[in-house]
């Protein structure tokens, strides 16, 4: 985070444009609360904090990484900070909140890395009133080399990952549910809309054909779909 805040904009990992739809939804839906699943150390919150404070919106960050949550608290949850801002350790598949606890929610680069992403989607729908922004990769038909995990309701794709401060290759697993299962889930949730994209997929280079599915709050999408159409043709990462 501190690196991103000090380097020239063209070298930054996070940009305000990545959450343009969230900012726009705040203006159109006027939520009183917002949850950020997979918040990390607060990268997206850093772009939202002025708007949230201005509108008096309660913010909840959630992540499974104890290290990242501790960093987020160091940066944004201090005795001098807004008391409506919280960062907690938690699992998107088992959210400790009642139904419709938040007006609006979003995740960025989260669902493809969550074992059983359908469980996380179910919890996202349950705990939001207006709906949420999210995205994931899905598999439309079985492909050789992919293993389907019944418990996780997803195909597992281990691509490995070489990290800067780690020798060799570490595990990097993406969980890809069936497209049909995601469609069936979406049909049962009246406050979201899904948009599918088959072009320019992240795993094309590996010969793995996927379908990207984007999730939007229905009320927002019905009003703003024309402006944000281009989002549906970008890879998810």
Explained architecture:
It is a single chain. This protein is an alpha/beta fold. It has a single domain (2-140, 178-233), classed as Rossmann fold (3-Layer(aba) Sandwich). Helix content is 28%, strand content 22%. It is built from seven helices and ten strands. It has helices spanning 2-6, 20-29, 43-55, 66-76, 117-127, 179-187, 218-224, and strands at 33-37, 58-63, 85-89, 104-107, 132-138, 147-149, 154-158, 173-176, 192-197, 211-217. A seven-stranded mixed β-sheet has the order 3-2-1-4-5-10-9, with helices on both faces. Strands 6-7-8 form a three-stranded antiparallel β-sheet, with no helix packed on it. The longest helix is centred in the first third of the chain and has 13 residues, at 43-55. It is globular, with a radius of gyration of 18 Å. The mean pLDDT is 88.
List strands and helices in order, with pairings.
Elements: H1 2-6, H2 20-29, E1 33-37, H3 43-55, E2 58-63, H4 66-76, E3 85-89, E4 104-107, H5 117-127, E5 132-138, E6 147-149, E7 154-158, E8 173-176, H6 179-187, E9 192-197, E10 211-217, H7 218-224
Parallel strand pairs: 1-2, 1-4, 2-3, 4-5
Antiparallel strand pairs: 5-10, 6-7, 7-8, 9-10
